[in-house]
Amino acid sequence: MTSDDPRWLDDGEYRAWRSLLATVALLEAALDRQLQRDAGMPHAYYQVLAMLSEVPGRSLRMSDLAAITQSSQSRVSHAVAKLEAAGWVRRRPARDDRRSTIAELTAEGFAVLESAAPGHVACVRENLFDGLTRQQVDALRGICDAALDRMSGQPGAGPLREAAAAAVRAASSGGATAGGAERLA
Asked: Tens digits of per-residue pLDDT, 110-132?
């Protein structure tokens, strides 16, 4: 084997990889169905609302929102336009850089998120956590943290890690954070 030869996955790695892909795909589909049915929005829109709710001031630059949600600028702009038309988000120029746009969660958007959150959390529990022991949840978190640490230099990883850290801080403080941010997942 030369250094140019690919390092193929062994049987255990391949099974873990395929299991991860299937789990994420099925969980995303279940969350999307539940949110469409109960809240009239796709999971991607819920994620935008949730990410805005978890930051101080309930507002983010559109570029940071795209990075946190792992969406293209175009995709997040389309989602925010739909959410803005519904009255759930408003866009405004950034005070410190007129070239940037800020997406801000409105009071109506927060109320919609609060209403949708219990069903969303129930779906996450039913499809993922209720089938795991506490030790498995801890192992899953450790595996995900290790993978995120390994990918920390990739595009979008900084804002995504910051959002994850903010969610952890919110969880340890009972759900509320400084500046009106709140965890609703």
From this structure: 999 999 999 999 999 999 999 99
Residue 130 inside a domain? The answer is yes
**pTM of the entire structure?**
0.82
Cα(9)–Cα(126) distance, integer angstroms: 31
The strand pair at 101-105 and 59-61 is best described as antiparallel
Supply the CATH number for residue 172's domain.
Answer: 1.10.10.10
Using CB atoms within 10 Å of the CB of residue 79, give its burial: 0 to 12 exposed, 13 to 18 middle, 19+ buried: buried
| Total structural domains within the chain | 1
User: Which phi and psi angles does 127 have, rounded to 5°?
Assistant: -90, -15
Residue 40 within a domain: yes
In-domain check, residue 5:
no
- Region of 55 on the Ramachandran plot (φ > 0 left; ψ -120 to 50 alpha; else beta): beta
